[in-house]
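Backbone-to-sequence.
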C-alpha cells in the first residue's frame, strides 16, 4: 500500500482538489483508495458529499481514541472510501497538545485497521501542526502541490525542514515523492518561468538529501479549470461532475503518472509497525 500525505502549509494551493480528484482517478483505474480528511474545514469530505454531523464518528474521534478508523470510514463507491472530518477536529490540536506520543496516534490507528487499500491519500490542513505531523508519521510519501505563483517556493524550506525532521526522528520511511503544479495557466509566461524555477530548485536540492532524492516533478500540469472549482458544491468528484472537462483529463493523466511510479522499487510501501 502507498500512503501519501498531500501537504503544503499554504491554503488555496490545490491540496484538497488534488486529494479528492486524484483519489477518484486512482479508483477509476481500479485501485482501492481511502481518502482521509485531516482538515477541520472538512473540504475533502464535503467535496465527496459527506457531512458528518454531531455524534457520527470522524477523524476527531479517531485521534481521541473514541472510534476506530473502520467506525468512521464511509464508502463512496466500491473502490473509494473516505474517513471524514468536521470542525470538531480543530479542537484536537489543543486537546492533544499535552499528550505523550501525540504524533503517533494516527499511525497506531492505521496499524489497528485491517482493511486493505492500494492507496491512502491524506488531505492535510494548511499548517504544520500536530495534525500534519500525525499525517507525516503515518505515511511514507509526501506529495507537494504548488501553484505557479512567484511566491510558490516561499516557505518551502520550512516545509522541507519539517519533513526532514519527521523523517529523521519519527519515520525513517518518509519520502517526498511527488511535486505537482496546480492551477496552471498554460498561456502565461509566469507559469512557465515558475515551472523552471521549481525544477531547478529540486534538481539543486536533491544532492545528499535522502528524503527527496527520488522526488518526481510530475509532467502533468493541472490547468486552471472552473469545473474543478464548481464540483465541490455538488458533492462530486470531477469525474461525476464534468467527465469531459480539462480538469478530469488532467487528474486522470496525473493519476497515470502516479501509477507508473508503482513499478519503481524507490516507491516506499507502508508496512504496519
Ligand atoms: P487547499 O486545499 O490547498 O486549500 P483547494 O484544493 O481547496 O486548496 O483549492 C483552493 C480553491 O481553488 C478552491 O476553491 C478550489 O475549488 C479551487 N481550485 C483548485 N484547483 C483548481 C483548478 N485547477 N482550477 C480552478 N480552480 C481550482
Ligand atoms: Mg484543503
Amino acid at each position: 500500500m502507498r500512503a501519501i500525505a498531500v501537504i503544503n502549509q499554504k491554503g488555496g494551493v490545490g491540496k484538497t482538489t488534488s486529494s479528492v480528484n486524484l483519489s477518484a482517478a486512482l479508483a477509476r483505474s481500479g485501485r482501492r483508495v481511502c481518502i482521509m480528511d485531516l482538515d477541520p474545514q472538512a473540504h475533502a469530505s464535503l467535496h465527496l458529499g459527506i457531512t458528518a454531523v454531531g455524534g457520527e464518528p470522524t477523524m476527531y474521534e479517531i485521534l481521541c481514541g473514541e472510534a476506530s478508523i473502520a467506525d468512521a470510514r464511509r464508502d463512496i463507491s466500491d473502490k473509494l472510501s473516505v474517513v471524514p472530518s468536521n470542525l470538531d477536529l480543530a479542537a484536537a490540536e489543543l486537546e492533544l497538545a499535552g499528550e505523550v506520543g501525540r504524533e503517533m496516534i494516527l499511525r497506531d490507528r492505521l496499524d489497528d485497521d485491517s482493511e486493505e487499500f492500494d492507496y491512502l491519500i491524506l488531505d492535510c490542513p494548511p499548517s504544520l501542526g500536530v495534525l500534519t505531523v500525525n499525517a507525516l508519521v503515518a505515511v511514507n510519501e509526501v506529495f507537494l502541490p504548488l501553484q505557479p505563483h512567484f511566491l510558490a517556493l516561499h516557505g518551502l524550506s520550512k516545509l522541507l525542514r519539517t519533513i526532514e525532521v519527521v523523517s529523521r526522528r519519527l519515520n525513517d520511511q518518509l519520502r517526498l515523492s511527488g511535486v505537482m503544479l496546480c492551477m496552471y495557466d498554460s498561456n502565461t509566461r509566469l507559469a512557465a518561468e515558475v515551472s523552471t524555477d521549481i525544477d531547478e530548485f529540486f534538481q539543486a536540492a536533491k544532492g545528499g538529501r535522502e528524503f527527496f532524492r527520488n522526488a518526481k516533478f510530475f509532467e502533468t500540469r493541472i490547468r486552471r479549470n472552473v469545473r474543478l472549482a464548481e464540483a465541490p458544491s455538488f458533492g462530486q468528484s470531477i469525474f461525476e461532475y464534468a467527465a469531459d472537462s480539462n480538469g478530469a483529463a488532467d487528474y486522470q493523466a496525473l493519476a497515470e503518472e502516479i501509477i507508473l511510479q508503482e513499478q519503481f522499487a524507490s516507491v516506499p510501501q507502508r508496512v504496519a509497525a
